[in-house]
Amino acid sequence: MLSCILLTLVAGGAEITLETPLNDVVGNGQTCAVLLDRYRAAEPPHSTPPRNMPKEQLERFTMGGTIAVGEMFVDDTLGGKGSHYQFPAGDVDHMVNSAASMLKPGSRGRRRLASMDQWLFSALDEHSISGGHVAIFGSMSPWYEAIAVAAGAEAVTTLEYNKLTYDHPKMHTATPAEVELPAGGGFDFAFSISSFDHDGLGRYGDPVHPDGDLLAMRTAMCMLRPGGLLFLSVPVGPDVVVWNLHRRYGEVRLPHLLYGWDVLDVVGWNQEKLTADANWRRSYEPIFVLRAPAARDEL
Question: Which of 141, 258, 263, 274 is deepest in the core (most CB within 10 A)?
C-alpha cells in the first residue's frame, strides 16, 4: 500500500512528490548483522552473468508487473575472470589535482563535465565531507575517489566486487570479504554514483537478486555511522529494469530505494523527468543527498 507525501527540500529548493511505501520490501528481518554478513559472503566473479532474466524471478524483478522490461546484455566480469583496474600514482594525482581545481569557487572546469558530475560538485559545495572517512560503492577508475580526496576527505575506502589498485596514500580498496568498518560506528560519508542501480543484475559479478539494489541501499545505511551522509545517483525516469544493464527508477521503485533515509537535498532534480517518456539509453541522474538514521534500531 502507498500513501502520498510531498517532500519540500529547502537546500537546493527541490520539491519532490513521491508515493511513500507503507511496507518495507527488504523486511524487518534484515538486520545490519544479517545484511553485512550477506555482503561479506559475496564471492569474486567466477562465471559470466546469465544472459536472460531468470523467468522464475520475473514477478519480483518487475514488482508484480508494474515495472517495464528492456534488454541489453553486458558482461563486465570479462567472461567470469573478473577485472583488476590499476591506476599508478601519477594518474591518480592528476585526477586529484583536476578535482581540486573544479572545487574552487567559480571554476569553469565544471562546465566541461557531464551534468551528473556537475551536480555532485554542487552537492559537495553545500554538504562538506572534509575530515571524514568516505566509502565509495562501486568503481572502475578513481575519479570519485579523487573528488573525495580533493574535497578534504581524510581517508577513502572503495568497496568493489572486483580487484582494484589505486596508488594514493589516502585511497584504500576492498572486496566485500575484506570490508572492515571504521571505529566509531562506520563511515562518515559514502558515494554511490551510478552503482546501486546495477546491484542484483549480475553485470559486475554481483549475486543475482531481484532486490539487490534495495539490499545495497540498506547495507550502505548499516555501513554509515548514525547520521552519516550518502551521495547517491541512479537513473531516474519511468520505471524499467534493463537486463542486465541497469534499472531506472520512477514512481514505483524510487520510493523503495529511498525508504528509511532522510532526504536532505536533490541536486539537479526535475519532477517532470520522473514520469516523462525517455529512452533508457540516455540517463538522467540527479544527486540525492541522504542521511542515515540517527540510531541503528530505526533500521
Answer: 258
> Which residues constitute the domain of residue 89?
2-298
200, 187, 209, 185: which is closest to 234 by C-alpha?
Answer: 200
Contact 289, 224 (CB under 8 A): no
pLDDT tens string 130-154:
999 999 999 999 999 999 999 999 9
E strand residue ranges, the chain: 2-8, 15-21, 68-71, 84-87, 133-137, 155-159, 163-166, 171-174, 187-193, 224-233, 240-243, 246-248, 262-267, 287-291
With a CB cutoff of 8 Å and minimum separation 6, the contacts of 106 are: none
CA count, 13 A, side-chain hemisphere, 14: 21
DSSP 67-86: SEEEE----TTTTTT--EEE
Residue 240 in grid coordinates: 524499467
Q: Determine if the peptide bond prior to 244 is cis (ω within 30°).
A: yes
* C-alpha separations of 125 from 12, 147, 193, 246 in Å: 11, 12, 17, 29
Digit-coded pLDDT (tens) for 211-227? 999 999 999 999 999 99
CATH number of the domain encompassing residue 197: 3.40.50.150
